[in-house]
Amino acid sequence: MRFFFIFIAFLSFNKIRAQEDLGTIDVIGTSPLPGILIDRKDVPHTSQKITETQIQENLTKSITDLMNENFSGVSVKDLQNGAFQKNLDYRGYTASPLLGESQGIAVYLDGVRINESFGDTVQWELIPENAIKQIDLMSSNPAFGLNALGGSLALSTKKGLDYKNKEFVDTLNKYGSFNYTSELMEYGYGTDSFGTYTSIELERDGGWRDHSDGEITRFYSNYGIERDSFDINFSFLGGNTDLNGNGVTPIELLQKDREAVFTWPDKTSNKMSLFYGNSNFYTAKDGIISTNFYHKRLYRTTFNADEVDAEECAEDSAADATELKIDYGFDDAPLCGEDNSTGDYGIILDQRGNAIESNDNIRKYGLLNKTYTTTTTIGGAMQYDNLFNIFNKTHKISFGTSYDQAKTYFRSQGFLGSLTNERTVTPLYLSDGTPLELVAEQEHAGAGNDPDDTERGDVGPAEVTGKLNVYGVYASDNFQYNDKLILNNGLRANLAFVELIDNFKTPTYTRTAFINGDHRYFRVNPSLGFVYNFTDEIAIISNYREANRAPSPVELSCADPSAPCRLPNAFVADPPLEQVITRGAEFGMRSNYSIQNYNYNFNAIGHFSQNSEDILFVSSGTGLSSGFFKNFGKTNRLGLDISLRADRINSMKGFQSSIINYSYLKATFQSAHTLPAANHPNGANDVEAGDIIPGMPLHKINAKTTYSFSNKFNVSLGALGTTGVYLRGDESNQLNKTSPYVVFNLESKYQPTKDITVFARFDNLLDSKYETMGVLGEASSSEVNVPIRELGDTGSGDTAVGALDPNFLSPGQPFSFFIGTSIKW
Fold this sequence. Notes:
The protein folds into 2 domains: about 675 residues, Maltoporin, Chain A, CATH 2.40.170.20; about 100 residues, no CATH class. The chain is about 5% helix and about 55% strand. It has 6 helices and 48 strands. It has a 22-stranded antiparallel barrel. A 5-stranded mixed beta sheet has the order 3-9-10-7-8. Strand 13 and strand 14 form a beta hairpin. The N terminus is likely disordered.
């Protein structure tokens, strides 16, 4: 392995010949390392891009919103109700910052994979948005390695070499609703042979919902060197974020107050550093060797308040109550966990192995969860590209290899507290002032029996190390068979080793379930496709491809239905999971043409994919975040994406650009399953083949048009609309979907001079009330699970009632705006 990195470093500093000027051809890389860029129209996969100019013209708050408004097949779910922590779905596959989501999109930054190794999550808030130069979204291509089930997202940053023989400074400031502020600065300078670029970003958002503020600091810097024979780039990215996102809320509470949250706080803090280098050089025979290497370190902490299954034991038996008081030496009964039926008690123990005496002054107990995650990742890749003449055909052939290594240390703790009517948790303490931590449950059979086995139960902490080693080898070939037909084929082999080491030790009890385990996953994924050009303006494309995803450490450590875990805190066992294998195809047409003063781009692409052994998180019914990961057999995604874009040619007045995207997606289960239904109002959740996967809208449309009144002033109007979705926990589709919605956005720019721009954006212009997704949560008519003051009083003093409707929804942001300025010099 040391030789691998030494070889990469050696290649990075060899002399090479500069690449030829590609002119105005629209090119794309078909692997993580660009190599020989291929004309986009010669690639048989769906590919969409957002250019630097389009990024500058859009005024969205986040990169996920930018893609949601511009890409076809993309939808966004606001699970955490924060601007910086959204789910991005593409054709039924997800890139999300949240553990527990079924991930299926590979995301790269300048050729460096940024899916986190512990759960394949994507931390959108750590991406240097101000430094992004281009965004390319491609349908599934096995060359991009593990997790490219539904597609791959390639983000390219600005480089110092982009600013040859010039110097510039740009400052950008935004101020808006809900105490939103953004302060950005970028600097670029270059000569003929080197360049440097730096971006600094500071964003704060008070959050439109209660207790949902966030703050982001990002720093990005690049240094590049170019001679007649080589070019090298070194980049550093640092990020520090503190975000509060409090998730779904009971529908009854939303009807009273849409800004209210269920339980709080729910805080995630990240500190990240990423150093990476890229190089390209030509061999003597005009081949290109591209390399990269990187080192990344991420430290994450989470802190959240939640309900907990803890209550006074033996409510139904006086004899049992007496026995428990005597055995544990209490005046009142001890606390029991979820298992609290008469004659079968789970006595909760603290960190010192002692039972906890119940307190009649506490109406409802709560839990303060803390997690600590440290991940170190290193890796590199090397790719060779050349043009070969085979049977009088010119083939663009690439060979590549990659290696990624990650080590994650994870620790969680749960501290007992009192759940208040404001739905936060006040911690409880031991007699010496130490916070009271829950570590185990002890079985007790009640009257006439003694305390029995002690186990972790549903409350215990976890401490685990996850190691991941991934090797990849790939090749691809693109060639023009004749003047009409272009063929493309490729192959990639992925080998992944996942190791879990259980570090948790406790003197409180003898453990019976451990997370230790070694897992190996291997898969060779092919792809083939063609482009047939009927004319210079019209072509049809078709492809078939396969991809795979190895279960992540977080999935393997939470896959036991008999011991569900409470994401993202506690993991207890390591049963095996199978890797996910996706087989898919596309067929459609694309067209580019000019009429009068406009260039038009039209695409209509049908797509189908089937996942075998799909991994989904299944709610266990013990809480909003409790459950386990499960291989779900087969799932399908069948869809159609239609897009039309028009751009004005050589005019600064009138309609400048218009875009309209329509997507149809039917994501279905193809295997029958009986799922937990503790929260389902019908008492059953039996999935049949053909049932729709929750959270995926059947129809989605986004449109936007820009009109310039002069060369200094323009206005853009956009619209986003989707149909409703089934709630998670209702995989059997028995209940109603969320309501469909349409949201309008307006933005405007005024440029009095070439260096000064004033702008404004208005989101949800009509202040529509809508929800992006939902979950079935705990609700009961017989007891108050979580007191909700806004819903009224139970009649027993100051005790609030609880939710009776199990529908928990994620509301969309109401009307908001921001204004800002950009000054260049």
